[in-house]
Design brief:
alpha/beta; 34% helix; 7 helices; globular
Amino acid sequence: KKYNITYDYQEFILDRVRHRVKLVNDDINTAIDSIVQLGKSTKVLIIVNTVKKAQEIFDLLGELRNKYLLHSRFIKIDRARLENDILEFSSNQDTGIWVTTQIVEASLDIDFDYLFTELSTADGVFQRMGRCYRKRELTDNRVNVNIFVKKPSGVGANSIIDRELFQLSKEALLPFDGHTMSEKEKLSVIDDIYSPEKIS
């Protein structure tokens, strides 16, 4: 197989520890109550693999006042407005929850306090992690990145995420469950997953 991989190496010039990871063997839906509580006092970013899943999660958040949705199916003028809104939200003192798809992985300079994400491929996950503590160093023991590995959307035949790469990514991330990840470690994971021995 041949894979077209793009990766934002510019983010990783400084080897600061910005993330402590938890791999959750469950569906991201099960974290809704915890996410709602965090969203009352912090900035929470949820990134899922498909538009359908994003819409589902957004609905599960119920009547929460500060919840927002961004995905690729918005018409151009609305998407531009929402992209401006998430940039403004990221830079001010607001708290709340944004539910998004992978369109925020590399295109937007945003910085959230917590990330809840479905597992995709490792390079995609690391791009998503770059939207959490983007410009800060993690100096305490909190878990600020929760990765949900059970039945994520968009994985498998005729889907956006290749099942083989998904499984390789899951296996590569397991040793970091409950631990911090440096930028060098992330790059090492990518090099390993996309080595000729793994993907030939």
